[in-house]
Structure to design on (93 residues):
């Protein structure tokens, strides 16, 4: 999503007879304006159809999920081990 003037992207609704709208976005990567935080690459400013547009800050976008998941077994395993040990000790006493 490009942030710019209100109702500026209305021309996308007027797609024409074939229903195809195309725009060309060229990104020039500069170390001072291009970031790669939390898995996303964000340009700070872009030129969209000849207009200068400012992109939202990287913190406004959702983060990418981690590759690993939080395991419930890690908490369940010590509890079950302790419970099984108590049952075996009680049974053999």
């Amino acid at each position: 999503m490009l942030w710019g003037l209100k109702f500026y992207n209305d021309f996308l609704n007027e797609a024409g007879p074939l229903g195809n709208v195309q725009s060309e976005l060229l990104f020039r990567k500069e170390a001072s304006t291009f970031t790669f935080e939390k898995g996303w690459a964000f340009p700070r400013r872009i030129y969209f159809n000849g207009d200068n547009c400012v992109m939202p800050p990287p913190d406004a976008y959702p983060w990418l999920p981690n590759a690993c998941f939080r395991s419930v077994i890690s908490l369940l395993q010590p509890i079950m081990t302790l419970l099984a040990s108590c049952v075996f000790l009680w049974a053999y006493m």
Q: What stands out?
A: The chain has a mean pLDDT of 68. The two ends are 69 Å apart (CA to CA).
